[in-house]
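stage 2 :: seqdesign
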């Protein structure tokens, strides 16, 4: 592992840290102002309750903003080469002082998986380690679709394309569309043999598959057009380009 010793690089990280501290201080000051306003509220009872609820909601929104402002998420398929690569990525970024949020570490016992995936979709920075398994996973594709739905897809996603993912030719991307069409057909056929009264949750699943089928062509087309470098280039440079891109995004 390469240890950063360059003076200019050290200065860059110090400047980044100072910028992040200023941003956090501004948000903390907002929270303090809202709390003081909430405590000082003096209205007739009914209006007081309404005003307190309004201010409380505002306070919670600011707290959520403070919590999420500098979060970095990672989206990847569990197991195999993908997880091995993510372990390396996680270790190197932590050594640089960059903490990433991972489901296996940060989603606690009985944590709600869908809510966590939706949170990934809203993240300011999302590292996506894309593999063949990723593009065939309902959970991974749900996260990718959520990132797109929340806007600024290009600015918020930081993709790394593993060698087994094939999206650079039209015929390769069509294979993924066919895969999801087959998944829809298989589930739809299975559902026809069951009473509609017993299909709670299955309709949502087939809706997700349909949404993935409708968006995967556009999403893979966007991904193939990005110069994501190779996994080896990233790992051999201790993810230097990725680290700088994330720092720049967090500073915006």
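stage 2 :: out
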């Amino acid at each position: 592992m390469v240890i950063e010793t360059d003076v200019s690089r050290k200065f860059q990280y110090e400047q980044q840290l100072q910028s992040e501290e200023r941003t956090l201080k501004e948000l903390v000051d907002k929270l303090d102002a809202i709390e003081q306003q909430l405590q000082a509220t003096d209205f007739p009872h009914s209006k007081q309750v309404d005003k307190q609820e309004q201010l409380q909601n505002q306070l919670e929104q600011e707290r959520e903003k403070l919590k999420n402002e500098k979060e970095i998420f990672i989206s990847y398929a569990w197991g195999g080469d993908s997880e091995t690569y993510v372990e390396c990525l996680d270790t190197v970024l932590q050594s640089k002082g960059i903490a990433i949020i991972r489901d296996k570490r940060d989603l606690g016992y009985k944590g709600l998986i869908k809510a966590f995936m939706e949170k990934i979709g809203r993240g300011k920075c999302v590292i996506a380690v894309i593999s063949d398994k990723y593009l065939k996973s309902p959970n991974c594709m749900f996260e990718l679709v959520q990132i797109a739905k929340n806007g600024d897809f290009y600015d918020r996603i930081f993709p790394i394309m593993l060698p087994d993912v094939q999206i650079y030719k039209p015929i390769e991307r069509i294979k993924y569309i066919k895969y999801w069409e087959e998944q829809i057909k298989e589930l739809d056929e299975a559902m026809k043999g069951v009473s509609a009264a017993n299909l709670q949750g299955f309709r949502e699943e087939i809706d997700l598959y349909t949404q993935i089928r409708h968006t995967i062509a556009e999403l893979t087309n966007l991904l193939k057009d990005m110069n994501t470098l190779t996994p080896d280039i990233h790992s051999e440079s201790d993810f230097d380009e990725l680290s700088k891109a994330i720092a720049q995004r967090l500073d915006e």
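stage 3 :: structure notes
- The CA atoms of residues 37 and 55 lie 8 Å apart.
- The chain has twelve helices and three strands.
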